[in-house]
UniProtKB/TrEMBL annotation:
Identification of the protein by name: Polyprenyl synthetase family protein
Signal peptide: none
Pfam family for this entry, one: polyprenyl_synt
Organism, as annotated: Actinacidiphila oryziradicis
Gene3D superfamilies: Farnesyl Diphosphate Synthase (1.10.600.10)
Family membership noted in the UniProt record: Belongs to the FPP/GGPP synthase family.
GO BP term, pick one: isoprenoid biosynthetic process
PANTHER family reported for this sequence: (2E,6E)-FARNESYL DIPHOSPHATE SYNTHASE (PTHR12001:SF71), GERANYLGERANYL PYROPHOSPHATE SYNTHASE (PTHR12001)
A GO term, aspect molecular function: metal ion binding
Keyword set, alphabetical order: Magnesium, Metal-binding, Transferase
UniProt key word Transferase: yes
Entry keyword annotation includes Transferase: yes
């Protein structure tokens, strides 16, 4: 069994047990494809507004063309956020189509963040091919990211309704939190110690805020009350924390063939992810040894003109991963993913919605926490 499959196994049983009694499994692939089908034409139309060469660069990022400009049927991502936006419209009693502007806006903001994150993190691969900054250069990666962010607000505001204004306020707040989270994440890399609560706050900003917006924006466009939109936002926020906890596990122990990233990718970037932070907080010999290694890294970075601590071989990364696991960081993070999942599902009970829509939201949550990448 691969490491990635093992991580899935840690979560899937608990997720199934925690889902409400009587909830049928739903065709998540159908939900995702439905969201993609409804939102893709509007998304492409929005991207077509960009000036050249930004339109071409964005099309490459979304997987619509290859690096040479030829049409491609690339992996444009799972489309979880568009599916959530359309389902949230249905939760408010509106047709799914009402949520399309919200689905597109959230997807644009999400991809704005990916373009910038790849550059800041130095990631050369995304979805099993070269990232935009690697192919087209850092300047265009930044500009296209900025353009997608501007388009997101434009797509919403051009609806010209009171509900669109409410939706835009939620999107801009989520975007600001997302940026806050990215800044926190970067700052943590240069600290020896980060508290677990600080890490959860960072991940709530970086990942939870936008999923929370996706889960509520369609409902807002459909005229939902603030209380109902807040309940859906709570569901999305905690689902985002569960999603990120899984991502943190995959960032250390995930199979590169499934994740599309290097082995030990988060350790290579010195990220203070949940497994690392939980291991450092646990105490004990493994925790203390890990802390000593990270302190030595920080000292080496401080004394380097470039902030680079030099390369490690695979054995060194394997040793650190083993220390994190021995100190309990992997087990704690797996448990936190389950706790956040349960909180997300419980939030759905705060809103009166059609039973079929609730089943779909639960099914989508199950998919998020048992994913391989």
């Amino acid at each position: 069994m691969s490491t990635t499959s093992a991580i899935r196994g840690e979560i899937v049983t608990a997720a199934n047990e925690q889902a409400s009694a009587g909830v049928d499994r739903v065709g998540v692939a159908t939900l995702l494809e439905h969201g993609r089908t409804l939102s893709a034409p509007v998304l492409r139309s929005a991207v077509d507004r960009l000036a050249s060469p930004m339109d071409t660069v964005a099309a490459y990022h979304f997987g619509w063309i290859d690096a040479a400009g030829n049409p491609a049927d690339g992996d444009g991502g799972k489309a979880v956020r568009p599916a959530l936006a359309l389902l949230s419209a249905e939760a408010a009693g509106a047709p799914a189509e009402v949520g399309i502007p919200g689905a597109v806006a959230v997807e644009l903001v999400h991809n704005f963040s990916l373009l910038h994150d790849d550059l800041m993190d130095g990631d050369e691969q995304r979805r099993h091919r070269d990232t935009v900054w690697k192919v087209h250069g850092p300047a265009l990666a930044i500009l296209v990211g900025d353009a997608l962010f501007a388009l997101a607000n434009e797509v919403l505001l051009e609806q010209g309704t009171v509900e669109a204004g409410r939706a835009t306020r939620r999107l801009t707040r989520a975007s600001r939190k997302l940026i806050d989270g990215q800044a926190q994440d970067i700052s943590f890399e240069h600290r020896e110690r980060v508290a677990v609560e600080e890490c959860l706050q960072m991940e709530g900003n970086k990942t939870g805020a936008l999923l929370a917006c996706a889960a509520s924006i369609g409902a807002v466009l459909g005229g939902a009350s603030e209380a109902d939109a807040d309940a859906l936002e709570e569901y999305g926020y905690h689902l985002g924390l569960s999603f990120q906890a899984i991502d943190d596990l995959l960032g250390i122990w995930g199979d590169p063939a499934a994740t599309g990233k290097q082995t030990w990718s988060d350790l290579r970037q010195r990220k203070k992810s949940l497994p690392v932070v939980a291991a450092l907080a646990a105490g004990g010999p493994a925790s203390e040894r890990l802390a000593a290694l990270l302190a030595a890294d920080a000292k080496a970075a401080d004394s380097s003109e470039t902030g680079d601590i030099g390369g490690f071989d695979e054995e060194e990364f394997a040793t650190r991963a083993a220390l994190i696991e021995e100190a309990g960081g992997r087990e704690w993070t797996s448990g936190e993913a389950r706790r956040q999942y349960a909180t997300a599902i419980a939030a759905l009970d705060k809103m009166d919605m059609p039973g079929e829509v609730r089943r779909k939201l639960v099914g989508l949550a199950d998919f998020v926490v048992v994913r391989e990448r």
